[in-house]
Amino acid sequence: MFAHFFLIGVYSLLLLCASDAFVPQTTTTTTSWRVSFSQTRLYAASPDGDVLKLIIAGAPASGKGTQCEIIKEKYGVVHLSTGDMLRSAVADQTEVGKAAKEYMDSGKLVPDDVIIGVVKDCLESAECKEKGWLLDGFPRTEAQAIALADAGVSADCFIFLNVPDNVLVERVVGRRTDPVTGKIYHMTFSPPEDEEVLARLEQRSDDTEEKVKVRLEQFHANVEAVKGSYDDISVDIDGTQAPTDVAALIDAAISAKVAAA
């Protein structure tokens, strides 16, 4: 599989060099290269039918959403979150979707066996078999990890975004939303420049220090056990760095795990 990824990368680079995809952008201080990303995307399918299978985990505000978008764009894998999978199964009226709907309509938590059924159905879809997949924030508990393994689902790499709690709290508590545009700002890292926008910003009711600490306690109560289920493929990534640096670390980790497979 690793050799296949390498060959795709080399081939894509040759195509780029032969076209106008490399466009130099010169400024007064430096020259950079703009790459047409659509031509360098690596679809994670290999000739023998293997595909890239990833799991990513991280606490609230760890930057997981940003990294999922980057991974999806770079490797072309299918991004799967539990909420999206459940909503899709219910909308498609699959057997597990119907079962999930009964719990959701009654305000109850969907049990693990139903969720595992939903996840397995998604992973067996033609799209996932062709492109590979990225499980976002699932499994959340050791029981779910065991059930997933019992269902025959395995991954190539388990990515954990490691961010200290004090940093996570700061990230969450400082978030504000513009009710007019829906844009999210941060009072420390990315405040709005417009005074009118600043005046109308709102804070989500669960973005308080007290509530985020409760969410973090729940997260930590399960994450170590989940990581333990993937010891051989797990990698910790420093999530305190800039998103591009975090993405580079994830890319290196994926390459290393695929090469070792």
Provide a short characterization of the protein structure.
The chain has 261 residues and is α/β, with parallel strands linked by helices. The chain has helices at 2-17, 64-75, 82-92, 95-105, 112-123, 126-131, 142-150, 165-173, 195-200, 209-228, 243-260, and strands at residues 23-26, 31-34, 53-58, 78-81, 133-136, 157-162, 175-177, 184-186, 234-238. It is built from eleven helices and nine strands.
- List the helices and strands in order: HEEEHEHHHHEHEHEEHHEH
Q: Calculate Rg over CA atoms.
A: 21 Å
Instruction: Work out the helicity level.
Output: 40-55%
Shape: globular
Number of helical segments? 11
> Which strand order does the major sheet show?
4-5-3-6-9
Number of strands: 9
What structural category do the secondary elements indicate? alpha/beta
How is the biggest beta sheet arranged?
A: 5 strands, parallel
Describe what you observe in this structure:
By secondary structure, the protein is an alpha/beta fold. Helices cover 50% and strands 15% of the residues. The protein has eleven helices and nine strands. The protein has helices at 2-17, 64-75, 82-92, 95-105, 112-123, 126-131, 142-150, 165-173, 195-200, 209-228, 243-260, and strands spanning 23-26, 31-34, 53-58, 78-81, 133-136, 157-162, 175-177, 184-186, 234-238. The strands form three sheets. A five-stranded parallel sheet has the order 4-5-3-6-9, with helices on both faces. A hairpin with a 4-residue loop joins β1 and β2. α3 crosses α4. The longest helix has 20 residues, at 209-228. It is globular and about 55 Å long. The N and C termini lie close together (8 Å). Residues 1-43 and 45-49 have low confidence and may be disordered.
